[in-house]
Every structure is written in structure tokens, then in C-alpha cells.
Predict the 3D structure of the following.
Amino acid sequence: MTVRPQPLIVGAGPAGVRAAGALVAAGLRPLVVDEAPACGGQIYRQRLVDDGRSTRSLYGSEAPKAERLHRDFAAFEGRIDYWPQALVWSLGDGEAHVALAGRNRKVAYDGLILATGASDRVLPVPGWTLPGVFTLGGAQIALKSQGCAIGSRVVFAGAGPLLYLVAWQYMKAGVNVAAVLDATPLMAKRHLLRGLALEPAIILRGMRFAAELRLRGVAIHYAVEDFAIVGETRVTGVRWRQGGHERSLVCDSVGYGLALRSETQLADLAGCRFTFNERDRAMLPERDISGRSSVVGVYLAGDGAGIAGADAAELAGERAALALLEDRGLPYPPVRALDLERKLTRISRFRDVLEAAFPYPAHWAKRVADDTLICRCEEVTAGTLRQSVRDFAVDEINRLKAVSRIGMGRCQGRFCGASAAEILAAETGRGIDAVGRLRAQPPVKPLPMTLADEKQEAAQ
Amino acid sequence: MQLFHRIARQDHAPVPFTLDGRSCVGREGDTLLTAILNAASAVRVSEFSGNPRAGFCQMGACQDCWVTLGTGERVRACTTPLVAGMEILTGKGAAS
Amino acid sequence: MRGRLNVDVAIIGGGLVGSSAALALRAMGMSVALIDSRYCGAQASGVNYGGVRRQGRPPEQLPLAQRAHAIWPRLKERIGIDGEYLCSGHLKLAANETDMASLEAYAAKVSDYGLDLELIGHNDLRRRFPFLGKNIVGASFCPGDGHANPRLVASGFAAAARRAGAHVLENTPVREITRDGGGFVLEAGDVIDVYTPVVVNSAGAWGDEFAALFGEPVPLTRIYPSMVVTEPLAPVLTVNIGMEGGGVYARQVERGNCIVGGERVQPLADPDFSRPRGETALTMMNRAAALFPGLRHAHVIRSWSGTEGMIADRNPVIGPSSTTPGLIHAFGFSGAGFQIAPGVGEVLAELVRDGRSTTPIGAFSISRFAADARQSIDRTIHGSGAEREPEPQQRGV
Ligand SMILES: Cc1cc2nc3c(=O)[nH]c(=O)nc-3n(C[C@H](O)[C@H](O)[C@H](O)COP(=O)(O)OP(=O)(O)OC[C@H]3O[C@@H](n4cnc5c(N)ncnc54)[C@H](O)[C@@H]3O)c2cc1C
Ligand SMILES: Cc1cc2nc3c(=O)[nH]c(=O)nc-3n(C[C@H](O)[C@H](O)[C@H](O)COP(=O)(O)OP(=O)(O)OC[C@H]3O[C@@H](n4cnc5c(N)ncnc54)[C@H](O)[C@@H]3O)c2cc1C
Ligand code: FES
């Protein structure tokens, strides 16, 4: 009798942890691989060392959830294999390659749950590569896990719930917040009223953040256009246009982001089929409500296959694990599965509300000046992209990559792919859903030349 | 001239390192990025324009914070813990 | 409704071979349709290693290689961009005395072709190319060889052909070819029928399928060479490097990235696609780090592979069909078509116009497989990409 290899879970954020829990409960022993040194993912990220601050001050209202997640994961010890600080850099057809402490480990898996999470979504604006500009998530990591402010007079700009949350967290930590620049119009916020019925606590918390910011004298500007960051060798200020007026502010740092984008490279390498998702305005791996992808035995959970937030990630992680159990012919609790699906559907409706309240200003990419860098890694400008589209009669994003280098750098298009697609669509007069998506290539992140090859790990 | 300002861990054990030859002190629990940006305003320069960069995402996604160590080794500053005695080079290209 | 296009020449396959032929034919004033099932220059021609190398080719390829050699420095005039062509020289390394002996034998054999090969012993080698590791016995240097950016060159030829008035039809696979009186009708994609007296088959790794259609089977197999590329580095490799007997090749582009190849991979379920396996990438990385100590601390940021048509004698098929007047073949470049392709394009244009070429191509005749033709090869045009869905389909793990 041959032993089936163990299931592989990539990511130990809310989705990955809950997936592991459900598999453990069914008596399976998954391998959990995560790049971070400790579980928690982005939102419940842990500090490298204790710094005297309480979990409450780190995670705010979400502190109980964070504590529960960390505690539950710790309790899996002995019943899972867990490789922290390990990067899954290539996978497919039942085999993953993991870089761990300078060595490569090849792992055979039977059942794959991808819970790879998300990173900030941005569109290029003038000055966005200057020292002092960080993503909203980056600004939050500095504060939460490193106990540092990104500057002494900070402007927060962009769109989405994280904008107000991070600005509020900085203000609470005693940092001088110069202003909040919201790309979306105040009018759009009326959609939040619809959200009250679905998730009253979240909506009220968001309103409280905005109110407390104002109370402390932080100016909030809506419908910000032509946002630009100013400085020679580091940030010295920002400028923008609002209702036809030029505005500017002095500051030494900027937290900037336009909600989140899914980390989909591994799903691509696993062979998952992608379709265009209107809400995220992105090509995403297809998944059904249970988390099944288009590939048998590959499951997608959490923000890695579409943005839905941390609570949804926990539910989706568990649901995906139940799907794996069912597909493996093992007993699973169908009532629980239905309950999870019902909750996920409800959160999805709430996501629609948030998207309406914080519409993504895709037009920023179309209008961006020719001399603005689109690709930070390879320093490709908007002008070069437009020129390449014309010179080579390009109508597809991978062709644009081939002739312009967009997406070829160290980050593999994570931070330029979306805006390059917007520019390509605008230049060719096609829909954003018709220009394709950058194909993933291993390694999904830079890999040392000397990474030592190791014989296949005997799994289980 | 530093970018960052500490809010916590000010009293943690000092961790000495050098930044482009200059002696600096980080704190226990620092990533390289934190240590560098508490002492300077950039972590690297772009290979192409030579413009300064100071990272962006702080979560290992944008890859805009790679630095070279005295050993020649290349590391991603935002996901690498600071170790006493590290010699960090910000201006150097990737090859040794 | 299907459109109809009448042209003097229809070219199947917009790789570097087909695109450069299209441009040359336009320069002669002929009307041309350049047809690709996907995008011009997106297959082998656009994803190859970028070696512009004459050294190491069999002598029968050298006249063609010399013809192409004259074109590479003039890309800017011809297609408007230089394709990042660098005349860096090509250094072929010997890992042991046996390999050094074969480098010497090769240099003697091709001494009449003007490659100006220079044999370099161990000590000189270390002095002139200090980035090399210790275990190299000697090398052969071809100063006029170099490298270029494949992504730009093939697309550049296709774009130039388009500007020169060629009908460039992309995402239009040729599904069917029928005879129409003395000429041909090509069913291209869902949209157009191309009527033409002359067909050039430059369909790369898929060229054998069109040859078979006309009763000339060619024993072509597919190979999938693969590459890795590093982040941008300070200058390390000053020349394009190869290794006698294979195993590793490497070059550094002006922006600093080092490209390393030397291994092949297996195709995915769909034989049109492949992807480097983890081991393959690691093997190449580790080898390069050992051979070039200066790359020891570098990181690899991408890997890829491509589909190439391979013929056992390592020579392509170039020349008129032996069964069908008006049909001209140029495919199966066996892993080394990038350097010679611009020359092949000119030769093809001559063949169309004059029925013969000023460059000797006899060795590449399709009739060399006539003996094989008796074994019938049962194949369809499955490689055209015609029936492929835009996204991969459900596949088991
Ligand atoms: C920087 C940042 C800050 C955020 N802050 C908040 C907040 O304050 N409040 C809020 O409600 N939401 C916040 N969000 C959103 C929230 O983090 C997500 O909704 C939630 O974390 C999703 O959980 P997840 O399990 O899907 O993914 P994540 O929590 O992102 O976990 C994914 C895990 O997978 C790992 N991983 C990914 N790829 C690989 C690989 N190839 N190999 C190994 N490991 C891999 C990652 O390292 C990570 O640990 C934030 C998001 C980001 C990016
Ligand atoms: C990874 C790799 C590395 C290499 N390195 C080097 C190198 O360093 N130096 C060197 O000299 N050579 C190298 N080669 C070989 C070289 O790239 C090829 O020999 C050369 O590009 C072949 O050009 P081509 O135009 O014949 O083929 P291709 O570029 O493959 O073009 C053939 C075209 O035909 C099209 N086609 C196929 N079927 C149909 C159809 N039914 N209808 C319409 N169109 C169709 C395809 O879409 C394709 O675009 C390498 C090859 C690979 C794959
Ligand atoms: S700051 Fe983005 S990877 Fe380090």
C-alpha cells in the first residue's frame, strides 16, 4: 500500500491557520509552509520580540481574534508539520519547491490549500518611489510589529478602509498625522449605510475612526485627484487637486494604498484557471464558494484569491479544508460547511458595499504623466509603455512585458501589473478584462544562486 | 536625517552594526529596514537611475529593499532580523 | 463572414525567420501576409537565450551565419532598434583536455570561414577573463560573436514588416491549406482566407506538420531549453559564454542581468507549453555560481523555457519543397536559429523571387529525409494552438 502524501497549506494567516485546524480535527497531518517567522499572516502578524505593548494596543478591537488564532495554531503542535520562514517558490502537479534556510526542499503533496493572502494595491503617482513613501500596510507594519513611525509628520492617502484605520492608529500612537487624502468622493460613503445592516460593528468603527481623526484636528479631504508626492531625495510634501483647486501640504512621509490585491502567483503555477473579477478589477483564480479551484485537489482560501478580509479568510480556510476532506472521501461536517458558506456569502455582500464606498480610482493610471515610473524595479515609465504599445502594436499584457520589461523585475509585476494593464487598455481602447494578465514564473520571489538542492523529503 | 521614529522598544538591548562604514546602533527586535531607517533615509539606490529607495511594502513583496552585507551576501532588509556586527552596504550594486 | 486576402507570398509563422523574410520580401516590393497563430516573436524567437553565435556551428551553416553576421550590427537601419545587440565576443570553455582538443579541432576545421577563432590556454584565460572559476582548462574565443535581446529582435522585425506594408495577422492560426489551381488557399483563424501563389513554411517547431501535409515528413522532435535570469548586477561577465559539450551558457546584458541556460525541461500536458522544473532551475543556478564566483551572491528572479524544433542532424530544413511547387520550407533550427534567422529571411526572399539563393543551402534540403518518407507519420496540426483554450483546463494533480 502506498501512503498518500500529506496535504500542503501555503500561508499561516487566518485562512491557512483555520484550514490547518480543520484538517487536524479530521486526523490529517498537513504541512504548513509560511514565509513569516510566526503565524498570523498580515493582520495578526506577530512582533519579532515582545515590546511591552499589549495585544489590545497592537490589534485594537481585533485583539481577541488575534489571540485566539495564535493560541489555536500553537495548539496544533505535534499534529502538523510547520515550516516558518520558508518560501514556496515553485509548484505544480503534486510537487512543491520550498526554500528554507539556504536549502531547497522538494515536497510531494496530495491536496493543496493556497492561503497566500494579499498585499497593498497601488497605482503609480509622481514621487511614489521616494524614500518616505510606504504602502498603508507597510506603514502599519512599521508601527505594529516594529514599533516605529514612518516619519514625524505623515500624510495618509488613497482609498479603502485601511486608509482610515492606519491613520487612526498613527494618531493614537501620538504621531503627527498631517492629513488624510481620500481618492474617493464623500458622496460614495453613503453606500456605507447599506453596510450597516450587514456589519454594523465594522461600519460604526470606521465612522468612529474618521470622527476621532477630525476631532483631533486631522483634515480629511475627499475626491482627491492628481495626487503627487514631492521631494528630491526624500519626501518633503504632497500636492493634489480638489474641486479644481491646487492644494499642497508639507510632510516627511506618506502612507499610500488603494485597498489590496491578491497574491495569485502560486495558483497560476498550480495551473488554476483565471477569470476577470469586476469587484477586485483583477484577474483572479476561479474558486467556488467551497474554495475549490479549476484544478482537482487545489483549493483557494482567503485574500489570495479575491479580497474579502480577515474574518472571511478564517471561514474560507476552514471551508476549503472541508472540501479537501470531502474530496478525499473522508467524513466532514456538511452542516458546518453550509453555515460557513452562508457567512461567506454575507461577507461578500458587505464587500460589495465597501467597494462602492471606496471605488478604486483606476483612471489615475490612465491619466498618469509620461515621465512617471510605473515599474519600480526596472524603472519603466508610463511614456515607455505607451510608446511600446504603439511601436510594437501590442494588445496583450505579456507582449507588453516582452517589449517594455514591465513586470520583469524583482517583484514580478506585483506592484506594476495592474497599472500597466490599465494603461494598455486605455491605449488600445479595449476593456481592462481583455488585455490578459501577467503570467507567473518561478521563482515567485528572488532565490539565491547557491540554494542547495536536497533530495525529496520523505513526507509522512 | 533618519526616516523612522521609534515609539516602542527604545530601551531594548542595543545592537551595533555599520552602515556604509558608519557605526550605528539598532535595537533588539529590529529588522534591517528598521535599523537602517532609524539611522538614514535610504536603504539602497536604484541600479538604473541611481535614485535612493527606502523600501515600500515592508512585507517582502515589493523587493525594493535589498541590501548587501559585508560578506557579499544579499538580503531583503524588511524581512531580515538585525544581527550584531552586520556590515550593511546601501549603495553597492548586487554583484560582489 | 470570412475575409479574403490576395498576396504574392503567405508566410506561416512570425518568428524571426518568418518576420525577417516578410521584411525582405516587402523590400523587393512583393505583397506579403505574415500569419501567426499567436503573436509574432512570442515563441522560440522571442524567448531564446539570445546568443548571437557562429562559433560551434557545423561548417555547412557558416556561409549562412556569415550572411546573418553582416546584418546584426545594422539592425537599427533595418528595423529601427538595435535589439540590444552587443558584439561582445563568444568564449567557449573547455572543462578538460579532451574538450580542449575538440575546440582545437573545430578551429582547424573552420579556419577558412573567417571566424577569427583564438585558442586560449589556462593562464591567459585567467588573466583576460578573471571572472572565471578555476576549473577551466582553456577556451576558444570568437571576437565577432555576441548576444542580443530576443524579446525585442523578433517583435522588432515583425513590427518593421508591418510598417513596411506587410499584412501581419496575429492570433490567426493557419488551420488548413488547400491547392487552388497553381496556388494555395490558407484558412487563417476564423476570419480570413489567404490566396497566394507562394507559401513560406516558417512555423518553427510546428513546421513539420505543414511539411507532412504535403507528403514530406520530417523527423522533428521538440525540445524545451530553459533559462534563469538574475537581478541586475554590477558587470561580471564581459563576454557571451558557452561550454564545449554543453551544460551551461551565460551572458550579462547591459542593464546588468545575467542570463543562464544549459538545461532542458519536459513539456506540460499540452506539448506547446513547458515550464522549468525546480530542479532544472537549481542545477543551472548552482552550476553558474560554481563557474563564475562573482555570481555567488546573486539572486535569480525569473525562469522560463521555450519550444524548439529539433532535427537529429542538428541542421534546419531550408529550401523549396520536394513535392509541391510554390512551397518553401524554413524550420527546425535545432536550438540555434536565432543568430542565422535574419540571414535565412534574406535567403527565403531570394528563393521566392529568383528560385535560388546566392548563399549555399544544399545541406538543408528537405529531400535529405526522402528515405524516411516511406514511414508515414500520422500527425495533425495539433500544435497550431487552434483548439487551445485561453486558460489551462482542469488537470489532475
Ligand atoms: C500589510 C497589510 C496590513 C493589513 N492590515 C489589516 C488591518 O489592520 N485590519 C484588517 O481588517 N485587515 C488588514 N489587512 C487585510 C488582512 O490582512 C487580510 O484580510 C487577511 O490577513 C487575510 O488573511 P489570509 O489568511 O488570506 O492572508 P494573510 O494574512 O496575508 O496570510 C498569508 C500568508 O501566506 C504567506 N505566503 C504567501 N505566499 C507565500 C509563499 N509563496 N510561500 C510561503 N508563504 C507564503 C504570507 O507570508 C502570509 O503569512 C491587511 C493586509 C495587509 C497586506
Ligand atoms: C529557450 C531557447 C533558447 C535558445 N537559445 C538560442 C540561442 O542562444 N542562439 C540561437 O541561435 N538560437 C537559440 N535558440 C533557437 C532559436 O530560438 C530558434 O531556432 C529560432 O528562434 C527559430 O525561429 P523560427 O522563426 O523558426 O521559430 P519560432 O520563433 O518558434 O516561430 C515559429 C512561429 O510559427 C507560429 N506557428 C506555429 N504553427 C502555426 C500555425 N498553424 N499557423 C500560424 N503560425 C503558426 C508560432 O506561433 C511561432 O510564432 C533557442 C531556442 C529556445 C527555445
Ligand atoms: S520593503 Fe517591500 S520587500 Fe522590503
Summary: DSSP finds 14 helices and 25 strands in chain A.
